Amino acid sequence: MQIAQLRAFVAALDENGFGAAAHVLGRTQSAISHAVAALEQELGAAVLRRSRDGVRATPLGEQILPRARAVLRQVEGIEEDARALRGMNRGRLRIAAFPTACQLLPTYIAALRRTCPGIEVVLWEGTDQEVERWIEEHLVDVGVRATLDTPGADELLLATDEMVAVVDPQHPLAAEPTVRLSDLTDDPMLVSDGGCEPLVDQLHADAGISLRIDQRVREMSTLLAMVREGLGVTVVPELSVEEGRGVVAIPLRPRARRHLTLVCATDPPTGPVLALRDLLRAEEHEAERPNASCV
Prior knowledge:
D-Maltodextrin-Binding Protein, domain 2
């Protein structure tokens, strides 16, 4: 039995729903559902029942609820003692990230604020080059890096997504299930320096193709607007392409995955950095368990 399972069970009852519980705990609704399902599997019976009015406890759920609350109170007390001892409860945490990574951070920032309200989080948003400079010059405490290489066991993984080619709906390749980088060489190549350009450069180098950039912009919204108007094509992470943009995202062949990892810029890590690291490792541990959902 896992603490995360009890947290999901109690939160679903307190918030009267899996979606609301996910918001409070800083998780996905799927992760909450899987945690409760895993708890029920271990206990051999249902603890929650869905209804039109929300979520209700089963007889077993009602019986174990007081014990679950007591366990969570004890665990929270232990965590509070440990954070206080390591100086993790207070201070400033400066996080540097490029725009395509910044959209993932609010969930973690909100979760950190709930567990460590004494920590002030400051988000620095910049280009790839700016983020690297801030990390190297120790102007921030942690930074997000994007890589096509599989992260090492000691690296903290924020998220993984696919690199995709993006074309306008009228483009000859728009109906293709996959495309190669070589298929795009006849079109003007547009890139953004907000989390994409180094990856695009590496993809072309690995494919033995010379990258010729016709236009470089900062904002992803500008880049996609240019593609939508038929001014060129681009290659970006799929998280950057929102539905309704009027463009077509096509998976690359061979497949290319982007990994977003968190890099510590301070040595030794500060208390707030350790608090964020512990939060991410707890998320990774839960995601790796059977029936758990990835971030």
